[in-house]
Specification:
Structural class: mainly alpha
Number of domains: 1
Helix content: over 70%
Oligomer: single chain
Strand content: under 5%
Shape: globular
Largest sheet: none
Distance between the termini: 10 Å
Order of helices and strands: HHHHHH
C-alpha cells in the first residue's frame, strides 16, 4: 500500500490499486499515445516534418525532432518513474503547443469548432493526468512494499 491508502475507497479498490503491476501499467497507458507517436514520427520523419509544417510550426524539421525527443524521452521518464517531473512536464508543454495550434476552436465554426473544442479539453485533461503522475511520483510505498 502507498501513503494514499486512507483515501476512503472501498477495500476491493484499494486491494486492486495495491497490486504491483497496476501503477506501471497505468503510467504506460498514460503515455502510450506519446510513445507510439514518437516512434511513428521517428520511423516516418518526412511525414513528421510535413505534419509540423501543416500546423505552421517553422522550421518544421526542428519541431519534428523536438516532438520525437520529447514524446519518446518524456514517456520513458514517466514509465520508468525517473525524472518524472521532467518527462511529464515536457509532455505537458508539447500538449499545450498542440492544443493551441491544432485545436484552435476559437477560430472555427460549426462541426469543426465542436470537434476542436472537445479535443482541446481532452488534451487539458491529459495535462492534468501528467501533473497527477508527477505528484504521485513523490509518494513512497509503505515499508515492505515494492516501489511501483
Amino acid at each position: 500500500m502507498s501513503a494514499l491508502s486512507g483515501s476512503g475507497n472501498p477495500a476491493w479498490v484499494r486491494a486492486l490499486l495495491a497490486q504491483g503491476w497496476v501503477a506501471p501499467l497505468m503510467r504506460l497507458a498514460l503515455v502510450s499515445a506519446y510513445l507510439i507517436g514518437g516512434v511513428n514520427k521517428a520511423l516516418h520523419f518526412d511525414s513528421a516534418i510535413a505534419e509540423q509544417a501543416h500546423f505552421g510550426l517553422h522550421p518544421p524539421a526542428l519541431w519534428a525532432a523536438l516532438a520525437i525527443a520529447v514524446e519518446i524521452g518524456g514517456s520513458l521518464c514517466v514509465v520508468l518513474r525517473r525524472f518524472t517531473w521532467l518527462g511529464a512536464g515536457g509532455l505537458a508543454m508539447l500538449t499545450v503547443v498542440a492544443m493551441l495550434v491544432a485545436n484552435d476552436f476559437w477560430n472555427q465554426a460549426g462541426t469543426a469548432r465542436f470537434i476542436a473544442l472537445n479535443s482541446f479539453f481532452e488534451h487539458m485533461g491529459l495535462i492534468a493526468a501528467l501533473v497527477l503522475a508527477t505528484l504521485l511520483a513523490d509518494v513512497q510505498p509503505a515499508s515492505g512494499s515494492r516501489r511501483a
